[in-house]
Every structure is written in C-alpha cells, then in structure tokens.
Design a protein that fits this description.
This protein is of the alpha+beta class. The protein has three helices and six strands. It is rod-shaped, with a radius of gyration of 35 Å.
C-alpha cells in the first residue's frame, strides 16, 4: 500500500510547495507594487505673489529715483556688489562702487534740474522668487515738466537676505537722437 500512496504523497507535497511559492510570490509582488506606487512627495514651493514682488521692485525704483533727483548718489542698497550696468552710449560699468561713482560723475550732465521716474511694467520671478527680471520704462522731465528723455529698461534682480538687489541692468532711449 505504501507504493500506491507514495505518488499521492509526492503530488500533495508538490501542490503544497506550489501554493507556498505562489503565496510568497504574491506577497513579494504586492510589496514591490506598493513600493513602486508610493510616490515621493515633492516639497510644495511657496506661492509667489507677483503683485507683491512688483510693488517691492517699484519701491526700489522709487527710492533710487528720489535719491538721484535729490542730487545725492550714495549706496542705498539698490545694486548688488557684483552688479553690472550697461549705460547708454558707454561701456559697461562693473561693481557697485564703480556704478555709484559713474552715476555721481554723470549726475550733473544728466539730471541738472531734471527729474527721473521709473515705472515697473512687468516682473518675471523665478519659481523660488530669488531672481526677478523687471521690464519698465523711465521718463526724465525738466523743471517745467517738459520731456527731456524717455525709454525702456530691463533689470535682473537677485534676492539676498530677504531683499532684492540689481545684478544687471540696461536701458535704451525711445526718443530720436538729437543731431
């Protein structure tokens, strides 16, 4: 009789072994599927308030214009230490101190009796808000409010220690050149 049951026992063992292997495979597959399906949560970036940034940049421009119009050219925290400005009809000026000296030197020829104003038209912040490109326009009027010069500018601001500083800027006049 043991010969008759022997094939049955081995068939039973095979079925049990197959079930165990199937169950292990199912458990391992489920675990892998669970691991694969779990998404790594991306940190949510802080919402960028474009209007707030535009107001902040406009305030910087207003402070710059007020200081310049008062005939005072000092470090007001407008330019970054490694700023470069590209003035009209001149070579680029590199470094905050050099830019301030350039503005002091040209103040009498540019603004004697004139007032400059800046309007921030658009701002384009980076996703983290640490860089902002500003597009604006400027206007220079004399003491009678007659237009002396006007034009457009672009400035790249960087944020350091919670404040924006001009890193690069350039402007162009939109008035025809006087002959």
């Amino acid at each position: 009789m043991s010969l008759i049951f022997n094939p049955l026992i081995s068939k039973f063992k095979k079925e049990t072994l197959m079930k165990k292997m199937f169950n292990k495979g199912l458990v391992v597959s489920s675990a892998l599927l669970l691991l694969i399906s779990c998404k790594k949560e991306e940190p949510v970036a802080a919402a960028i308030d474009i209007n707030q940034i535009k107001e902040e940049i406009q305030a910087k421009e207003n402070e710059f214009a007020d200081t310049y119009n008062a005939g005072i050219m000092k470090n007001i925290g407008y330019f970054a230490d490694d700023a470069i400005t590209y003035p009209q009809n001149n070579q680029p000026v590199a470094g905050k101190e050099a830019i301030i000296e350039y503005l002091k030197k040209h103040m009498d020829t540019i603004s004697k009796g004139n007032k400059i104003s800046f309007i921030t038209n658009e701002v384009f912040p980076s996703k983290d808000g640490d860089q902002v490109v500003e597009i604006g326009n400027y206007k220079i009027v004399d003491s009678t409010q007659a237009l002396v010069n006007s034009g457009n500018y672009m400035t790249l601001f960087i944020k350091k220690e919670g404040k924006y500083y001009s890193l690069r800027d350039m402007s162009t006049s939109d008035l025809p050149e006087k002959q």
